[in-house]
Prior knowledge:
Largest sheet: 9 strands, mixed
Order of helices and strands: EHEHEHEHEEHHEHHHHEHE
Number of helices: 11
Number of domains: 1
Strand content: 15-25%
CATH architecture: Alpha-Beta Barrel
Low-confidence stretches: none
Structural class: alpha/beta
Helix content: 40-55%
Radius of gyration: 20 Å
Number of strands: 9
Shape: globular
Amino acid sequence: MSxxxxxxxxxVTTGITLARGEEAKWVEQVRAAHDFNAxxxxxxxxxxxxxxxxxxxxxxxxxxxxVADATAALESLRKLDAGLAEMGCTLFNLGPARSDAAVxxxxxxxxxxxxxxxxxxxPHLDFGRAKAVGEVVRAIGDTxxxxxxxxxxxxxxNVKPGIPFFPAAYHAGPPSxxxxxxxxxxxxxxxxxxxxxxRERVIETFTAQMRPIEAVAEELAAAHGMPFDGLDASVAxxxxxxxxTAAFEGLGLGTFGGSGTLAVAELVTSALKSLxxxxxxxxxxxxxxxxxxxLAQRANEGRYRVADLMVYSSVCGLGLDTVPVPGAxxxxxxxxxxxxxxxxxxRLDKPLTARLFPVPGKAAGEMTAxxxxxxxxxxxFDVA
Length: 384
């Protein structure tokens, strides 16, 4: 490699299309994708990259499961999940719920297995759907340990197939794969310094880090006859990597959440969109308070609110991700928030999602006490 591998592979995600009436074939289709993922992981690790997970996504589940019969649908998914467990596939995305009947199944699906992830589509200005999804989010919060089941689910707005990151991922067409990158450490190396040269530093550093992964992916595509959809270059943090806030604040514009934060978010995202590699998915900036130690700290200090995250979403890549909200938040208030995000996604023609965590027994300003290995803890945000 021509550069030190600061970049990690968050996920190799292979997408497949399942068909109704062909239930006997589902596990073998998943197994083929799972086996390809294993080969991809081996090749990437041989090239010097850490691979944190491999995943499988499908077309929207109501295309292959009869959601009109809830009992039968859940039984079909239970059998599929047993096959996932047997082969060791731990991260599987069922795609978006697009009908009222499918949305009504979401909570039961989440409780069915920690392996199953999914989303629900919220159309522009559809208050009925937004409220139904708000009720699902509340139900998951009320019926899973500490409300952590919402890690497996998000509301989705204007999301297209091909995103490798969960829980928004879904697939369309013949099998193909994409790679989601973990680039927080790359951003930490590239961004701090003189503001005038920051965009070019980000482009140069990310390009040097991502081209070797792109080369491995293209070799895999040729060797296995598996189309490569691209790299999602998103800055996707987790509690164990360099905090995004430190990279932002390294430009000298002040504390994250204050004036200048929006400008830096736009700088980073525009740089990522300009990378001379094959891009897919969000390829933007993720700002999840429960997955970044710096964002959690700044939230505890009251440096930013949900409204600020919404503003940042207008120029970055994701929406509201892993945001804790009061456990008693009315579904109507969550619906109103979803409609705001939908308005942004529609007006700006970009994919956005909302992964909210109503925390049982917690009010705005109180601390969460999550035990999920991929979550930090921070104060609960107000959604009034």
